[in-house]
């Protein structure tokens, strides 16, 4: 009888502990770190967002201001995974400057702040060369921080670059990440990403024009985060500018067409090219063609 009673007590305690773990777990979060474009808008940092799963951050792109925006989000929302020293996973969609100017910041600032491990970076061909040149450019700084009175941690300055192809490129106990090709003008490689966690599927378009491959990879997602430009503003541009943007970016009309096929639970607009239009008009242009839930992204918005 004593043995039966003891087994019952141990079972209750074990189940209570498991229940507490489950109850304490938080749903996947998306934080927009930067929603800007090459335009130097002081209200919008360069393109970047973070997906937070079980106190780990997975960052997409690293436009200007990314590390300080991450620090701001960590303080505002109480997310330790976004403290600079915790930034260890980075996925780059393509090598345009507005998506990568924050890359040296992403490498060096967390390292200075005692990142305890290597930075793992995934992206297109050319990323290794970019990384090598950046580390060479800051060689004197790194040498002084590691070998001088600062006594920096060598592991924090290590960068492991993974030049990727289409398909599953990363997985751990939190997440599976799939890269897929998108059409972004004359770039030989540009990627969108599909992030699958236990409770959400999030698709990030990166920069691209209307793309059937994106639609195929986004079907069934909970959140679609997509770049956009105002069709009204676009039509007023000089022909040379229209010719450029038509093959590099996605109009409100095209985004609505994509969303009508993908049917996400939430469409988030980011990297918004207004061309003299307004946020309200961009939303109106999309919503007049798409009946689903749409959010106009701003820096530090969380979903």
Report on this structure.
The protein is α/β, with parallel strands linked by helices and 303 residues long. Helices cover 36% and strands 23% of the residues. The chain has a seven-stranded mixed beta sheet. Strands 1-2-3-4-5-6 form a six-stranded mixed beta sheet. Helix 7 runs parallel beside helix 10. It starts with a helix and ends in a 7-residue tail after the last strand. The relative contact order is 0.12.
In short:
By secondary structure, the chain is an alpha/beta fold. It contains eleven helices and 13 strands.
Layout of helices and strands, plus pairs?
Elements: H1 2-24, E1 29-34, E2 48-53, E3 56-60, H2 66-77, E4 89-91, H3 97-100, H4 103-112, E5 119-123, H5 127-137, H6 139-147, E6 159-163, E7 167-171, E8 176-181, E9 191-196, E10 201-204, H7 212-218, E11 223-229, H8 231-234, H9 239-248, H10 252-262, E12 266-273, H11 279-287, E13 294-296
Parallel strand pairs: 3-4, 4-5, 5-6, 10-11, 11-12, 12-13
Antiparallel strand pairs: 1-2, 2-3, 7-8, 8-9, 9-10
Helix pairs in contact: 7-10, 10-11
Ends apart, CA distance between termini: 52 Å
Mean pLDDT: 92
Structural class per helix/strand content? alpha/beta
Care to count the β-strands?
13
> How many helices?
11
- Sheet-strand content, in percent, reads 15-25%
Query: Main β-sheet, in a few words?
Result: 7 strands, mixed
Element pattern in H and E: HEEEHEHHEHHEEEEEHEHHHEHE
| Helix amount | 25-40%
The geometry reads as: globular
> What value does the Rg take, in angstroms?
21 Å
Keywords:
alpha/beta, 11 helices, disordered N terminus, 303 residues, 6-stranded mixed beta sheet
């Amino acid at each position: 009888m004593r043995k039966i009673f003891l087994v019952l007590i141990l079972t209750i305690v074990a189940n209570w502990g498991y229940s507490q773990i489950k109850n304490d777990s938080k749903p996947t979060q998306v934080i927009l770190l930067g929603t800007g474009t090459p335009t130097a808008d002081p209200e919008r940092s360069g393109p970047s967002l973070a997906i937070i799963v079980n106190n780990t951050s997975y960052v997409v792109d690293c436009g200007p201001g990314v590390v300080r925006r991450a620090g701001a989000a960590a303080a505002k929302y109480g997310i330790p995974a976004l403290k600079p020293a915790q930034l260890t996973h980075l996925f780059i969609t393509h090598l345009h400057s507005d998506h990568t100017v924050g890359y040296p910041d992403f490498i060096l600032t967390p390292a200075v702040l005692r990142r305890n491990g290597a930075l793992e970076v995934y992206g297109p061909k050319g990323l290794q060369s970019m990384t090598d040149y950046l580390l060479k450019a800051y060689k004197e700084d790194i040498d002084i921080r590691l070998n001088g009175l600062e006594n920096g941690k060598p592991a924090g300055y290590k960068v492991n670059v993974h030049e990727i192809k289409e398909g599953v490129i990363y997985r751990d106990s939190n997440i599976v990440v799939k890269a897929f090709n998108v059409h972004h003008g004359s770039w030989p490689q540009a990627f969108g990403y599909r992030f699958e966690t236990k409770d959400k599927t999030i698709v990030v378009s990166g920069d691209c024009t209307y793309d059937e491959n994106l639609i195929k990879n986004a079907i069934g997602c909970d959140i679609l985060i997509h770049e956009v430009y105002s069709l009204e503003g676009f039509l007023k541009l000089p022909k040379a500018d229209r010719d450029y943007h038509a093959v590099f970016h996605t109009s409100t009309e095209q985004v609505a067409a994509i969303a009508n096929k993908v049917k996400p639970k939430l469409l988030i607009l980011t990297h918004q090219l207004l061309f003299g239009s307004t946020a309200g008009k961009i939303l109106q242009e999309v919503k007049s063609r798409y009946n689903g839930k749409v959010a106009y992204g701003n820096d530090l918005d969380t979903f």
